[in-house]
Amino acid sequence: MNTPAPVERKRTSAWEMYRAIVGIGAFCALLIVSVFNATAARIADNKARFLSKAVAQVLPASNSTVEVSVDGSGALVAATESADLPVFLGYDEGGELVGAVITAQGMGYADNIRVLYAYSFEKQAITGFKVLESKETPGLGDKVEIEPHFLANFDALDARLDEDGSALANAIVTVKEGEKTDAWQLDGITGATITSVAIGEILNAGSSAWVPVLERHARAFEAPLPMEE
Amino acid sequence: MALKKTSPTDEFIKGLWRDNPVFIQVLGMCPALAVSNTAINALAMGAATTFVLVMAGLSVSLMRNFIPREARIVSYICIIATFVTCVDYAIMAISIELHRALGAFIALIVVNCLILGRSEAFASKNNPGRAILDGLGMGVGFTFALFFIGVVREILGSGTLFGVELFPEGFQTWTIFVLPSGGFFAMAGWLLVVNWIRQRQDDAAKQAEETAREAAS
Question: Lowest CB count within 10 Å: A2, A13, A106, B13, which one?
Fold first, then answer.
C-alpha cells in the first residue's frame, strides 16, 4: 500500500480528561464558595438596609417598625424570623400606631414584581408604594416606578373594608390612563398596560389578605418595644 | 495562515479599534443591544464583562496545557460561569440598586460569545500576560462600543444623559430607542460611521502607496 499513514493526533487518555474536568470543577467550586462567603455578610446587610430604607420611604411617619406574622389562631404576633413577604407595623415617636407596611408580589409582564406599600389605619387607604424587584421593560413597564401621575394614585388609594370587615369593600383595579373615577381605582399608564394592571392585582391580593387581619388585630397588638403605659 | 508576531501593546490596542468586538467582529450582540439603553447601564455592563474577559483569559491561559482539546469548551464555559457568579455576588455586595438595574443580564454574560471566542481563539494559545492584555483591550473596546450605543439611546429615548435632563420641557422622546429595536437602530448607525471611517482610512493608505510607487518609478 502506498497511501501515506494518516497523521496520528495524540489521543487524550480518559485519565487526562477526568483530571481536567474534575480539577476545573473543584477550582471553580472553591472560587464560588470563597466569594460567596466573603460577600454574604455584606449582601445580607445591603438587603436589610435596602428594605428598611424602602419601609421608611413608604411610611415616612413611622419612627420604628416591628415585623409581624399571623399565628395559628389568626392573631398577630411579633415575627420571630423575617418572612419572605414581610409585613411591618409602624409606630411614631410616642409609640402610636401610624400604619402598616405590606410586601406583596405577583406576575408582571416579564417576571415577578415585588412591591412594598403602606396602609394607613386613619385613612383606610394605601398611602405609599415602592417597587422592590421588577424586570419590566425599561422605558415602558418600569414607568410604574417613576411616572408622577401613576405615583399620585398612592396619595390615598381607598382600601376600606366592607361592613363585616372580612374583605375589601371595593376591589382595587387598574383603569385606563385618565379614566379614574373612584378612589379605589388605579390610574394606569398607556404603554405600560400589563405592568400597571399587574400592580393593581398585586395590591388587591395583598390588601385582601392583610387589611382585614390588620384592622382586627393591629390596634390591640402589643409591640415588643419600650412603650409608655 | 502565518501568525505575525505582535507587540504586547498591539494586543491591547487591537481590541479598541481594528478588531473592536462590537463594531468590527460584531460579537456579544445580546448584551450590546439589551443593556445599552442608558449610558450608565452600558458602562456597568462593560466593566462586568471586562472583568470576566480578563479573569477567564488568565485562567484559560494558565491551564492551557492542562485542558485536553476534547474537553476545552466545557472547561471554558465552566470557568467563565464561575467568574460571572463572582461578579454577580460582587455587584450585590457593592450596591443592591445597581444589581436591580442590570437585572437578568449579569447571568447572560456567560453566553456572551465574545468571552468564549477570546478564550478559544487567543487565551488558549498565548501566555498569561498576553491573554490579560488581550482581554483588557477587548473589554475596553466592548465597553466603549456599548457606551456609544448607550449615549445615543439614552439621549434620544429618554432625553437624558447619566440621568440628567438635557432638553427643555415638552421634548418628545423616541420611546423606540429604549426598546430592543432602538438598539438595532443605534447599532446600525454606529456601524455605518465606523465603516465609513475605515473605508476612508483604507483609501488614504492605498493612495499613499500608489503615490510612493509612482515616485519610485
Answer: A2
Task: Please identify which residue in the block is written with the cell numbers 473592536.
Answer: B20
Nearest residue on chain A to B37, alpha-carbon basis? A138
Model confidence at B5, in pLDDT bands (50, 70, 90)?
Answer: low
Tell me the C-alpha to C-alpha distance, in Å, between residue A35 and each of A32, A38, B59, B77, B88: 5, 5, 16, 19, 10
Q: Which residues on chain A are in Cβ contact (under 8 Å) with B104? A: 111, 135
CA separation for the pair B91, B86 (Å, rounded): 9
Residue A36 and residue B66: Cβ atoms within 8 Å? no
With beta carbons less than 8 A apart as the criterion, state whether A132 and A144 touch: no
Q: Is residue A24 part of a domain?
A: no
Tell me the nearest-neighbour CA distance from B44 into chain A, angstroms: 16
Q: For the whole model, what pTM was predicted?
A: 0.75
ipTM of the complex: 0.78
C-alpha B140/C-alpha B118 separation (Å) is: 14
The pLDDT of residue B4 is above 80: no
Asked, for residue A222, whether it belongs to a domain, the answer is no
Instruction: Find, in chain A, the residue whose alpha carbon is nearest to that of B56.
Output: A28
Across the A:B interface, residue pairs with CB atoms under 8 Å apart total: 74
DSSP state at residue A129: E
Which structural domain range is residue A63 located in?
Answer: 59-217
| Closest-approach residue (CA) in chain B for A111 | B104
Strand-strand pairing, A157-158 and A173-175: unpaired
Contact A196, A189 (CB under 8 A): yes
Domain borders along chain B are 15-208
Does residue A212 belong to any structural domain of this protein? Answer: yes
CA B42, B80, B119 angle in degrees (round to 5)? 95
